[in-house]
Amino acid sequence: SCQIHCSAFPEWLCKYAPYEEGSTVIFKNxxxxxxKLKVENKDKTEKYSFRQNCKCxxxxxxxxxxxxxxxxxxxxxxxxxxxVGRESLENTEKVAVFFQIxxxxxNMWDIAQKSFADINPNDYGNEQLGDTFSLQTKTDNKxxxxxxxxxxxxVEFYDKENNCTWxxxx
Length: 170
Prior knowledge:
There is one protein chain. By secondary structure, the chain is an all-beta fold. Helices cover 2% and strands 52% of the residues.
């Protein structure tokens, strides 16, 4: 029998989705309209081990679910995963980071994502993703041009349906 040890989701990566459960994130557009999103759920993988099915790999993620407050039906989900092809994150030098944001009204969801290859999840001294990066949707969806900033999370996105840019209010 074998035992696999899996690391917690790296704290330095949490800086790109710095939301706390119960808090509110507010976006405003150039027409002074406002979207208020309440952080309903935040789930981060903690350190764990398992014995069964030792051919499996560690699953390590950060997931944040935000839902609109008020009449409008708007939801955003941020999912950040480490792509690990080995048995343990603790022994992994390089992995891929998959950062994905889903946004939508009702049942209509747009997904934007970005992958970063050869990231060392245990290297807390280097900011390997940079201070800011953008995510693009792969199809012609309602939302596009999403910009993520370290320490702030999603700071801007374009709304094609309303022809406006939403910016984080600080």
